[in-house]
């Protein structure tokens, strides 16, 4: 079994390539800071309490953009340029290639979230009502739930031009419906209901739980379970949809299966997840 | 037997890329697959590598079936694909390290770099390497796990003669250790210089197979002789031996013949029987290129193909 050495050296190679492509690096790290300063200056009211209230949404935006844009494009590029085809004539297992892309995305996310958190702490004096460990676990689960969706986009995109189209299409509802960009209580009731179908809503809810309401993992098990299910199903679907070569057809049946599985989780969450507490709390 | 192929056919929809290939390639030596673009060379090697599945027929590489025993086969073969793309933002040492990690056993990275003459470039990014250096790196990637069989698809296409010679040296060194190489090329001189056996493919069929010398010898090629004598002479013995006078260039009389050995014997008769001595003799034998052009004929530009 040559999984582990291949997985770790692929991940290392991807991270090195990411660090060496300056434009991608700067964009990935700077994008969350733009959002941070824009939102905090506009809406925090200048208090640490107000600043903290905005952080769940800001972290969520960072996680969505980091999960979708980089990894999808990296996968399509490797496929289009024939790097994956070259991998294919070696014994490297597909699962090592797939998971290394996921791991790379998580490393990149960890960097940009950490930077955003440090800047927010230093400049806007944010705090965490609950435990820091819980916060890290929630953020990690969020990354694990979202990165596989970006990878699915990378696998089904026809070429490098299609990938951003797909990820943008997913990005906007996940950002605006989830309460990440617009505080949840401001959304009309029908939009709040619709939001229960969007996975990032549960991420914002969990982050609010730990950062604003000081809740622990036990209290948050409902939304966290949704995220964990998304993660498990998303990772599994990547095994089905991965393509070594751009000439390989995107298998319609498998895409349908993938979409149905993801929608099923969303529907399940819609009916089964506990009521969203963030809809109750007024803006401080 | 390194490779055994029986009745191999490959279709892409209604296009027939390979129509009934039978081949046996024993271990050792360099085998060249020569043919115009679209002849099916790439399809053939990609079936051997397990990248494509045959439509009909059986293929065995190192005793393994490339379709059903791909994983075990891939551990033992080294492959360079046509227009291999290498991650641009890595260094040669990192690229070799990455590929080494895919195999259960591999040689040290420093040795791998040295094998393809890239020690000095170990810390340069691939994007800053020349075309020849990238091709050498691609060869290094194929050799890092010390494979028993090397399959190269147009390893020197687009390179200048110096870079091409560098690639040839690496391939010869590898052959010298007793391993087998299969390469495709559309450079005839490459096949002639490098290969122990040349298989000519046209429109999905093997049209000739042998050592470069055998192919040249078998061919209906025409030899040209330029002969300069010290004085006037009677060409009758040469004509009787099948040579046709083909004009005069300065002091040289030109003859063309399909049987140069008989012409040389007739030349001896002239020197013995007539009052002249030989000032100069030059002969151009048919080359593999003549043979090749004879075999692939008007098809030399190929059909728009599956070669991609």
Written account of the structure:
The complex is a heterodimer of chains A (284) and B (308). Chain A is mainly α. Chain A has one domain (3-176, 194-279). Helices cover 75% and strands 0% of the residues of chain A. With 308 residues, chain B is of the alpha/beta class. Chain B has two domains: 3-217 and 292-301, Rossmann fold, CATH 3.40.50; 222-285, Alpha-Beta Plaits (2-Layer Sandwich), CATH 3.30.70. In chain B, 33% of the residues lie in helices and 28% in strands. In chain B, β11 and β12 (252-257) form a beta hairpin. In chain B, α3 (92-100) crosses α4 and α5 (131-143) runs parallel beside α6. Classes of the chains: A mainly alpha (284), B alpha/beta (308). The interface between A and B is medium-sized, with 22 and 26 residues.
Provide the fold topology.
The complex is a heterodimer of chains A (284) and B (308).
Chain A: H1 3-20, H2 22-43, H3 48-80, H4 83-88, H5 94-124, H6 132-156, H7 162-176, H8 189-195, H9 199-211, H10 221-241, H11 252-272
Helix pairs in contact in A: 1-5, 2-3, 2-5, 3-5, 3-6, 3-7, 3-9, 5-6, 6-9, 6-10, 9-10, 10-11
Chain B: E1 3-12, E2 15-25, E3 29-34, H1 41-49, E4 56-61, H2 70-76, E5 77-80, H3 92-100, H4 109-115, H5 131-143, E6 149-153, H6 161-176, E7 180-185, H7 188-194, E8 197-202, E9 205-210, H8 212-218, E10 223-229, H9 236-240, E11 244-249, E12 252-257, H10 260-273, E13 278-284, H11 288-296
Helix pairs in contact in B: 3-4, 5-6
What's the quick description here?
The complex is a heterodimer of chains A (284) and B (308). Chain A is an all-alpha fold and 284 residues long.
Rounded Rg of chain A: 19 Å
Largest sheet of chain B: 6 strands, mixed
Shape of chain A: globular
Total helical elements of chain A? 11
Number of strands of chain B: 13
Overall number of domains of chain A: 1
- Low-pLDDT ranges of chain B: 300-308
Largest interface: A-B, 22 and 26 residues
């Amino acid at each position: 079994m040559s999984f582990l050495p291949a997985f770790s050296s692929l991940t290392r190679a991807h991270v090195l390539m990411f660090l060496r492509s300056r434009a991608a690096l700067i964009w990935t790290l700077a994008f969350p800071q733009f959002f941070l300063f824009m939102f905090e200056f506009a809406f925090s009211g200048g208090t640490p309490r107000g600043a903290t209230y905005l952080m769940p949404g800001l972290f969520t935006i960072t996680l969505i953009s980091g999960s979708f844009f980089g990894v999808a494009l990296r996968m399509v590029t490797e496929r289009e340029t024939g790097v994956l085809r070259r991998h294919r004539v070696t014994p490297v297992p597909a699962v090592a290639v797939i998971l290394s892309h996921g791991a790379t995305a998580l490393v990149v996310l960890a960097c940009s979230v950490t930077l955003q958190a440090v800047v927010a702490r230093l400049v806007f004096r944010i705090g965490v009502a609950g435990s820091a460990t819980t916060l890290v676990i929630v953020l990690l689960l969020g990354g694990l739930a979202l990165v596989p969706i970006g990878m699915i986009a990378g696998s089904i995109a026809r070429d490098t031009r299609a990938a951003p189209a797909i990820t943008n299409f997913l990005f906007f509802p996940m950002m605006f419906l989830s309460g990440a960009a617009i505080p949840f209580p401001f959304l009309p009731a029908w939009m709040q209901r619709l939001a229960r179908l969007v996975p990032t809503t549960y991420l914002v809810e969990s982050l609010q739980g730990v950062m604003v309401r000081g809740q622990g993992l036990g209290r948050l098990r409902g939304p966290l379970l949704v995220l964990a299910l998304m993660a498990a199903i998303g990772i599994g679907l990547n095994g089905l949809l991965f393509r070594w070569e751009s000439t390989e057809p995107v298998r319609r049946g498998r895409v349908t299966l993938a979409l149905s599985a993801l929608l099923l989780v969303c529907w399940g969450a819609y009916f089964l997840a506990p009521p969203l507490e963030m809809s109750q709390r007024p803006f401080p | 037997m390194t490779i055994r192929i029986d009745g191999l056919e490959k279709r892409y929809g209604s296009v027939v890329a390979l129509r009934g290939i039978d081949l046996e390639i024993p271990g050792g030596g360099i085998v060249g697959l020569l043919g115009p673009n679209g002849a099916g060379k790439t399809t053939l090697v990609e079936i051997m590598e397990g990248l494509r599945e045959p439509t009909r027929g059986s293929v065995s590489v190192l005793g393994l079936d490339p379709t059903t025993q791909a994983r075990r086969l891939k551990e033992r073969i080294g492959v360079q694909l046509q227009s291999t793309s290498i991650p641009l933002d890595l260094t040669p040492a990192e690229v070799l390290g990455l590929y080494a990690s895919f195999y259960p056993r591999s040689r040290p990275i420093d040795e791998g770099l040295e094998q393809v003459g890239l020690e000095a470039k170990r810390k340069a990014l691939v994007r800053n390497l020349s075309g020849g250096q990238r091709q050498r790196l691609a060869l290094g990637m194929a050799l890092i796990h010390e494979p028993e069989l090397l399959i190269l698809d147009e390893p020197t296409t687009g390179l200048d003669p110096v870079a091409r010679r560098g690639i040839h040296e690496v391939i010869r060194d590898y052959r010298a250790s007793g391993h087998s190489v299969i390469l495709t090329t559309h450079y005839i001189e490459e096949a002639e210089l490098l290969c122990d056996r040349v298989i000519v493919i046209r429109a999905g069929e093997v049209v000739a197979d042998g050592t470069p010398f055998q192919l040249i010898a078998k061919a209906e090629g025409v030899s040209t002789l330029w002969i300069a004598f010290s004085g006037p002479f009677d060409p009758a013995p040469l004509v009787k031996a099948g040579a046709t006078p083909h004009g005069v260039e300065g002091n040289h009389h030109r003859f063309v013949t399909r049987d140069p050995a008989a012409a040389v014997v007739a030349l001896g008769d002239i020197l013995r029987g007539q009052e002249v001595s030989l000032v100069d003799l030059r002969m151009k034998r048919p080359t593999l290129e003549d043979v090749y052009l004879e075999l692939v004929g008007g098809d030399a530009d190929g059909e728009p193909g599956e070669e991609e």
